[in-house]
Amino acid sequence: HVIIDTHSALYYYEPYSKEVVWAKENARGPMLVADKVLGITHPHSVFALSKKDGKVLWETKVYAKSESFITQGSVSPSEDKYYFATSVCEDSDSCSPLLYCVDIESGSIDWAMKLAQSRGGNENLHHPVVIVNPKNFPSEDHVIAISCNGFFYEFSQDGKKIWQTPTESSIVAVSSTGSIIMSDGAIFGLTGTHTGKVSSDMASHSSFIDANDNMYGVYEDHAFGNYIR
Q1: Residue 160 contacts by C-beta under 8 Å, 6 or more apart in sequence?
Q2: Strand pairing of 9-14 and 2-5?
């Protein structure tokens, strides 16, 4: 089966029979988690559907300027928590980003953290990234969130802010050892400190990072590999 996102509706499609099994209007950003499909809908809500028949299992309204100000989400490795970000704007020049954690089974909000208020129309966040068992916290999963207000953050799985660091770029990838690669080529460790730099062209065209911190991708029709430390 294939989930098709048209940015206005979701379709659960059977490619062999060429049939649409079910559809949900006014929905986007699907994530398949076990027997559920998570996504975003109107008015500024997140939801879970039954993968089998598209039945709404739960729908949770969150604070956001509109559903278009809810980011694509990330799911914990244990597949029980759903992380996403929103933005609430008091006026056109002042917006407050929020990072949410929702229980996937019940749809209840575990926590929502208000981040630094943005200015000048910077209204949203990039989608959060889940870090599995970081080296400095080996028994936990952490969440990295980047705000367009010029900061990025690391939170523990229970919503505690570990650190906050200014940045002007977005995350390209996170290695298994915890190196965070930014679109401008900057490399940060899981303590929020700057640890190195690679070519911004290489960072922007990278595909993945292996367990030894080698970055791979395609740039100008040529494959490359580069040790980032």
Answers
A1: none
A2: antiparallel
